[in-house]
Amino acid sequence: MSPLWCARAQLGSFELTVATDGTYLLDGGAMFGVVPKTMWQRRAQPDEQNRILLGLNTVIVRTGSQTVVIETGIGNKQSAKLREIHQNQELLPKSLAAAGIRPEEVDIVLNSHLHFDHCGWNTTLHPDGSVTPTFPNARYFAHRGEVEHGHLQLDRDRVSYLSSNYDPLIESGQMTLLTTEGIRETPEIVPGVSVELFPGHTRQLMAIHIESEGQHACYISDLIPTSAHLDPTWVMGYDLDPLETITQRKRFYQLAIPESWLVFFTHDHQVPMARIGVNEKGKPVVVSTV
What we know:
The chain is 20% helix and 31% strand.
């Protein structure tokens, strides 16, 4: 297996590949909110600046008739200052190539939300300053509410939204903006791939469901960013509505645990996907990895 991509699994007739845009560093306190450091550092060891190492996981779904890319990492449009802070590596194009996936063959790109570390390679910045779609033949999908929120540039989270990751695609008509409202609506993007709102981290955070031959996987995105965040109350300081995050995690577990879904962790570099269950205390835990 190439070091440039993380894992591969079969789900019914679908082939699932986890590619990577590399790793980056974020403050551990921000990633675990009000959880005391004495507790979270047992699961995520911080460096001398209190930063923890996170992954940037992209999932590629090959259905047999469609190639679907879920999330596109940080990309190459960050400022020099932010690159120094995050120490990200901009690896996704190389990772896709190592996994045998050409940008031209991608049919669909799905963004769970539009924070900079989830949609960065939607577009590519060139030396002359131009920005073009990284996946030239793909239809892109994001939620309209995410775009509208990003355009507000609110003090709370404006640093998380970089318009060059999505505005050029909207202007060209290559990005479709979804208007899903009910949390139990699951619009199908292509056969076997659908989206569902799980608000909390952002108001319109979308999980991506993948279903084939009676098997189910879910890219739950920043509702549960890593396997260290499985406890319902271990929410992030980045969550806009932490109480809603707790509620939605519990709703997710009611679905995912009894049916043994394969769960993707968007920012877990060591455990990109796993099946989850409950321990003797009734807490959700990883029970098997793939």
